[in-house]
Amino acid sequence: MNISGRNPKQKLLISFSFSLRAVVLLATAMTAGCMTVGPDYEKPKLDVQDTWLDVSNPALKRGDVELGHWWTVFQDPILNRLVDEARRQNLTLQAAGVRILESRAQLGIATGFEYPQVQQANGDLGFQQISAHAPNTAPQIDRAYGSAGVGFDAGWELDVWGKFRRGVEASQANLEASIATYDDVLVTLTAEVARAYVLIRTLEAKIQVALDNLQIQTETLKIADALYGGGLITELDYLQAKTLLSNTEATIPPLQAGLRQAKNSLSVLLGKTPGTVDSYLGNSGAIPTIPKEVAVGVPADLLRRRPDIRQAENQLMSQSALIGVAKADLYPHFSLLGSINFRASDAALTFATGGASSLGDIFKSNSFQYSIGPSVSWDIFNYGRISNRVRVEDARFQALAVSYRNTVLNAAREAENAIIGFLKAQDEKLKLKQSVDASKRSTDLSFYQYSEGLVDYQRVLDSQRSLVTAQERFTNVSGEVANNLIALYKALGGGWETRAESDFVPDKIKREMARRSDWGKLLKPGAVELSDEDKKPFWRFPDW
Q1: CATH number 1.10.1040.10 is the correct assignment for the domain at 34-117+156-331+378-516
Q2: 203 with 286: CB under 8 angstroms?
Q3: Signal peptide: which range, if any (predicted)?
């Protein structure tokens, strides 16, 4: 194109336009040929058993299993209400939800590095005086003058080796890991609420057992007192009856203290102050009963269901990408740099005009200046720093790979332990129920025979002690059966699926955050989770 007939301002704009086009074409060409250094993530091979060890037990139901609302199998409306309230109000869960927003913002930062990293508007105004004895000064130079400038600088390190794309990959995996962490907190929270509730009901049952035995032992003591007053028994029989009664009375205060502490723990899980949970619980209730069959699925389900396994794998994926980030520094860095600005001074003499100028000339066409072009840098002599950083990231990846396998093994162990604990606790409960029934019958018979003078008082004491022991053990194991079932559902990773029913962060917290900072669209429901479109490996739209 011939620009000889153009005015200076047009020539300047045409020249800048050609330069800009050349830079854009260069950037496009270099970006099109980009490669991604570092390893692509490969899922570690795992040894997972095909079936559970006790799969033949009739109490275990095989096949597809839905554990999203596992606590409803107890058919206890109070427990259902407590779980729902904890999921709305628990502070630990809310903190985990906010950390998801943090990870989402970190992903936005990583995405922004794929675009020009430096985009700065600038301006300056200064006044200075040059020394008369400075080098290369002349009498005609205006030694005291002011200068002003306004412009725009841009710098873009091209992602030739995939450094920034690997950074986005790592941030995406971190976001998925933070969501898995939230799910894990949700699974743990649900189990802890159920355990606290079972403990409360178990302690209430133990207190009631103690009160029932007190009533029996009080009646026995009255009879012993009357017989002792009539000279029909010795003082030893009377004292033994009083001792048994006092010992039973002594078991109640620690049970009451434990009950209060369990309620306080449940209050915290619900995000409430101690004492407020009583309105949910009512006066008392029975220990939750268990279903005849329990659905457990297959061991392979753990890999997709347990949040801690998904969290460990996402951390592994993120670390794999960081190896590529480190390796990219071994190669040259290609950048495009550009600067446009207007500059003027009020010096008495300028080389461009041969005369005086003023700061008011700053926006004239001949005050315009620019620079644009590519640059390359390469850390050639880094004394092994970059290579060792790659080794550090690789070692961290390997450690996480081992931890991932260990997480899977521990998940299988927890599930197997919960299954065998649940099954054997049921067997123990059945036997103890028979023991309680026999002890009650023995107590009634011994008391009747004692009243008739057929046996001594020691037989009555022995039968009543046996009844107390049998009832305490039966109450304990009834709670253990329920707790083992809770542990089983937790080990299977049940309960997190229901998070789709609400957002990660409550609306109250969102309003507080929105008052402090501009969160854009991220506070909208479902905004933090990535769709398949969001997971594009290249040219994701950044979060402005």
Answers
A1: no
A2: no
A3: 1-22
Question: How far lies 520's CA from each of 226, 511, 534, in Å?
Answer: 83, 12, 17
Q: Which of 118, 135, 173, 184 is CA-nearest to residue 407?
A: 184
Residue 83: exposed, middle, or buried by beta-carbon count in 10 A (0-12, 13-18, 19+)? buried
Please state whether beta strands 60-61 and 144-157 pair in parallel, antiparallel, or not at all (unpaired).
unpaired
What are the pLDDT digits (tens) for 140-195? 677 787 889 999 999 999 999 999 999 999 999 999 999 999 999 999 999 999 99
Mean pLDDT value across the chain: 85
Residue 73 burial (10 A CB sphere; 0-12, 13-18, 19+)? middle
Cβ-contact 478, 287 below 8 angstroms? yes
Please provide the DSSP assignment of 193-227 as one string.
HHHHHHHHHHHHHHHHHHHHHHHHHHHHHHHHHHH
Q: 255: closest CA among 297, 211, 293?
A: 211
Query: In this model, does residue 473 exceed pLDDT 70?
Result: yes
Q: What residue segments make up the domains of the chain, in order of their start?
A: 34-117+156-331+378-516
Closest to 522 in 3D by CA, of 88, 91, 171, 107 = 107
- Rounded to the nearest 10 degrees, how much is the dihedral formed by the CA atoms of 512, 516, 519, 524? 20
Q: What are the tens digits of pLDDT across the range 392-406?
A: 999 999 999 999 999
Query: Checking phi first, is residue 354 left (phi over 0); if not, alpha (psi -120 to 50) or beta?
Result: left
Angle made by CA atoms 281, 287, 289, in degrees to the nearest 5? 120
192-205 tens-digit pLDDT: 999 999 999 999 99
Residue 411 near residue 421, CB atoms below 8 Å = no
Output the pTM of the full model.
0.86
The residue behind tokens 């003591």 is: 221
- The Cα–Cα gap between 427 and 422 comes to 9
| pLDDT score at 25 | 54
∠ Cα 478 482 486 (to 5°): 160
367-379 burial, b at 16+ Cβ within 10 Å, e below that, comes to: bbeeeeeeeeeee
**Looking at per-residue confidence, does 235 or 419 come out higher?**
419
Out of 35-39, 83-87, 218-222, 256-260, pick the least confident: 218-222
3-state secondary structure 307-372: HHHHHHHHHHHHHHHHHHHHHHCCCCEEEEEEEEEEEEECCCCCCCCCCCCCHHHHHCHHHEEEEE
Give the pLDDT band of residue 500 (cuts 50, 70, 90).
Answer: confident
Residues, the chain: 544
pLDDT > 90 fraction of the chain, expressed in percent and rounded: 43
Which secondary structure element, helix H or strand E, spans residue 111, and what is its range?
helix 91-112
CA distance linking residue 405 with residue 393, whole number of Å: 19
| Rounded CA separation 309/96 (Å) | 17
Contact 491, 411 (CB under 8 A): yes
Helix (H, G, I), strand (E, B) or coil at 54: coil
